[in-house]
Amino acid sequence: MAEESQKWVLMVTAQTPTNIAVIKYWGKRDENLILAINDSISVTLDPAHLCTTTTVAVSPAFNQDRMWLNGKEISLSGGRYQNCLREIRARANDVEDEKRGIKITKNDWENLHVHIASYNNFPTAAGLASSAAGFACLVYSLAKLMNVQEDNGKLSAIARQGSGSACRSLYGGFVKWVMGKEENGSDSVAIQLVDEKHWDELVIIIAVVSSRQKETSSTSGMLETVETSALIEHRAKEVVPKRIIQMEEAIQKRDFATFTHLTCADSNQFHAVCLDTSPPIFYMNDTSHRIISCVEKWNRSEGTPQVAYTFDAGPNAVLIARNRTSAALLLQRLLFHFPPNSETDLNSYVIGDKSILKDAGIPEIKDVEALPPPPEIKDKVPVQKCKGEISYFICTRPGRGPVLISDESQALLNPDTGLPK
Ligand code: DP6
């Protein structure tokens, strides 16, 4: 293996997007392999605004596998990490760097240790599917480091064993996780339905809702639902299979009305099965409900839907607008109902693709104060303003799948020591 010098460090850096489900995964038929009780469909979010970057390194000088998340060392002893590491190592191949005189044979990988450093470009605590991007990036970068010759579909089945939703982050655009039938999970993989260019008018606005409440994790929440809810079986067997077919067609045809109808209904049904769990699980809060009302009212008044909403295991809203024009009109409504606190400036209140703010004619904070009530609420109930209920908005769009980062300066590990920079 390492001839003259034992000091070399070989590294790979990759970037992987996060995703948001429009037909939800909720419930497992195998807890260890992470096999779902229904298919699900997601949209991949632009990694420019939400992604995980991971550097993995190997060196004969390392004496154990180690990992750092956002600069802090974390334990790799959990079953999910161990399953991913084992599955990737089992598929490793020869690797040679002639220039540096490094040669690793297939069998060497069993005895070599890795260092992993991972960083999210969005707050982990915001509850924005950080585990999906995280496990997808871990598996993708290790596969590249170890010269694993499998396609992204096969890699998705490994990422799935880290976190179910992670398998869908191996592709850009719209992605389906096929639940599969096999007991060993070999056919429970992600497939790309369309790439990110297929429906590129869509604009996505995420409302990060302020919340003090500690939420039930997806893992334990879905286990409790499967054990106690009578509705979940009906959902998985009768409702979702039909919705999957309709959703695939809506995506192929860029049929926004059907897409919105299915996305909102599926989010609402997911939260209904949470409420049907004993004890009930509440992921959405009053702010989430207010956002739903605002969107429903506007869609209704327009006649044709302008925006779809979906909520995961937390109060944050993911709003998918049909195009830039409706995204700008949506942002006006959101800022009217949910203005920032007096100490927050607009620049940190709306992040990501800020050009939507310009489209909405709101370049400055004084423009927020001057926003008129949206026409659909005029002359009805007194206008309600909810300052401070939203932490910030992220403007983004559908995005691409994982990529390798060749620029060494972006690596998170030091190329000489293999320790975090
Ligand atoms: C509500 O993938 O986080 O976001 O497989 O136990 O790690 P584990 O759960 P996770 O669950 C995601 C649930 C969801 C819906 C979805 O992403 O499809």
UniProtKB/TrEMBL annotation:
Q: One Pfam family for this entry, by name? A: MDD_C
Domain Mvd1 C-terminal: from-to ranges: 204-404
**Predominant cellular place of this UniProt entry's protein:** other
Q: SUPFAM superfamilies recorded for this chain? A: GHMP Kinase, C-terminal domain, Ribosomal protein S5 domain 2-like
Q: Name one GO biological process term.
A: isopentenyl diphosphate biosynthetic process, mevalonate pathway
InterPro entries associated with the record: GHMP_kinase_C_sf (IPR036554), Mev_decarb (IPR005935), Mev_diP_decarb (IPR029765), MVD-like_N (IPR053859), Mvd1_C (IPR041431), Ribosomal_Su5_D2-typ_SF (IPR020568), Ribsml_uS5_D2-typ_fold_subgr (IPR014721)
| The keyword Lipid biosynthesis appears for this protein | yes
Catalytic reactions on record = (R)-5-diphosphomevalonate + ATP = isopentenyl diphosphate + ADP + phosphate + CO2
Q: Which UniProt keywords apply?
A: ATP-binding, Isoprene biosynthesis, Lipid biosynthesis, Lipid metabolism, Lyase, Nucleotide-binding, Peroxisome, Steroid biosynthesis, Steroid metabolism, Sterol biosynthesis, Sterol metabolism
Cite the GO molecular-function annotations of the record.
ATP binding; diphosphomevalonate decarboxylase activity
EC?
4.1.1.33
Where is the protein localized? Peroxisome
> Which residue numbers delimit the Diphosphomevalonate decarboxylase-like N-terminal domain?
17-190
GO CC annotations on file = cytosol; peroxisome
User: Superkingdom of the source?
Assistant: Eukaryota
Q: What does this protein do?
A: Performs the first committed step in the biosynthesis of isoprene-containing compounds such as sterols and terpenoids.
Q: Which family does it belong to?
A: Belongs to the diphosphomevalonate decarboxylase family.
Protein name per the record = Diphosphomevalonate decarboxylase
Q: Which organism is it from?
A: Nicotiana tabacum
Q: What is the lineage of its organism?
A: Eukaryota, Viridiplantae, Streptophyta, Embryophyta, Tracheophyta
